[in-house]
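dumping this here so i dont lose it
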């Protein structure tokens, strides 16, 4: 029935999310979720909210949540925008800051939603090749026509770019918005670009509660920037839907940002397990890129990556494989709990033994 589709629908090439198996016995290491539950204070806030005035509209300005986020980042409420997951925030940002017909730059190996939005909003793009070590060739992002967007740490490669590199990209695009997508920055050995916001009027930092704050099911994303950028995002939001976040999400996320101790405890657990997992992969002949995320990107010259993915899947262990020729020798493995990772390595060892027999 595509004769009824608009030209916009026809040119879309939708994002394909990681596989979601409805099976409690699956070891799920494929979508970079936090292996730990959210803050008990966040859960309690959600429960109490559900008992309250759910017949009323939520706050369209989300003041309490924005203040909690601002406090964590050393910013003001006027520097914070919130939306229904960071993907929605990114969509508003593409619409707000990148013009049709002007070429956007992002890395060749990166978050696959960027080309989706580019096609949706009719924005030409240049996918900039990576260096041989999968780091970003920052000079190739200078003097962008429409603007620049890249994740830091990058996905799926997991590599964190130090802020001096981010600043060079900002300084060489003074009249264009540079979006730094920081879904995983809380697991990195380095600061957020949010620390640069006062200095750069062209910097927008996008983050999420789905990873380090374990609220992937709640769908709360955010952007940080100077007030003129935040105002543009609010104008886009209110042109689509003034109430993008429900009251459960608002109150749950606010409580999560306020529970700093729980956040830090679980963040450190993920980092410690990641470092242990990298050591274990190395013992088994894998080469793993330096990770600043809650996942690792790894390869073994003696193992076919796609075959490994399929054989683990047969055992109900989900990891992520990408068919892109640039990275088809790699797999991405989300860091689970220590128990989940030990189970993963038992299955991996079984497969390696079968291969050697």
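and the seq i came up w/
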């Amino acid at each position: 029935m595509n004769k009824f589709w608009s030209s916009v629908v026809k040119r879309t090439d939708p994002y394909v999310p990681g596989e979601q198996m409805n099976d409690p016995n699956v070891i799920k290491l494929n979508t970079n979720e936090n292996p730990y539950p959210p803050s008990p204070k966040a859960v309690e806030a959600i429960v109490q909210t559900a008992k309250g005035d759910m017949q009323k509209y939520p706050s369209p300005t989300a003041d309490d949540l924005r203040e909690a986020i601002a406090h964590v980042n050393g910013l003001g409420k006027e520097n914070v925008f919130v939306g229904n997951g960071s993907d929605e925030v990114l969509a508003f940002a593409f619409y707000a800051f990148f013009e049709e017909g002007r070429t956007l730059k992002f890395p060749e190996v990166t978050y696959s939603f960027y080309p989706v939005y580019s096609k949706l909003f009719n924005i030409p793009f240049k996918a900039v090749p990576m260096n041989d070590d999968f780091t970003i060739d920052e000079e190739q992002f200078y003097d962008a026509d429409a603007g620049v967007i890249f994740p830091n740490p990058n996905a799926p490669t997991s590599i964190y770019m130090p802020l001096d590199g981010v600043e060079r990209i900002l300084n060489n695009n003074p009249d264009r918005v540079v979006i730094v997508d920081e879904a995983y920055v809380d697991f990195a050995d380095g600061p957020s670009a949010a620390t640069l916001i006062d200095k750069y009027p062209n910097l927008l930092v996008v983050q999420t509660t789905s990873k380090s704050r374990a609220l992937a099911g709640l769908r709360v994303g955010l952007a940080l920037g100077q007030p003129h950028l935040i105002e543009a995002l609010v104008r886009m939001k209110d042109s689509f839907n003034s109430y993008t976040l429900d009251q459960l999400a608002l109150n749950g996320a606010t409580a999560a940002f306020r529970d700093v101790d729980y956040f830090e405890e679980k963040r450190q657990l993920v980092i410690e397990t990641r470092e242990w997992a990298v050591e274990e992969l190395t013992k088994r002949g894998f080469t793993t890129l330096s990770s600043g995320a809650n996942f690792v990107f790894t390869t073994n010259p003696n193992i076919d990556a796609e075959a490994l993915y399929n054989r683990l899947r047969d055992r109900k262990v989900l990891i992520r494989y990408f068919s892109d020729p640039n990275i088809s020798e790699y797999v991405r493995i989300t860091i689970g709990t220590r128990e989940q990772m030990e189970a993963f390595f038992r299955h991996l060892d079984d497969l390696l033994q079968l291969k050697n027999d």
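The first strand starts at residue 27 and ends at 28.
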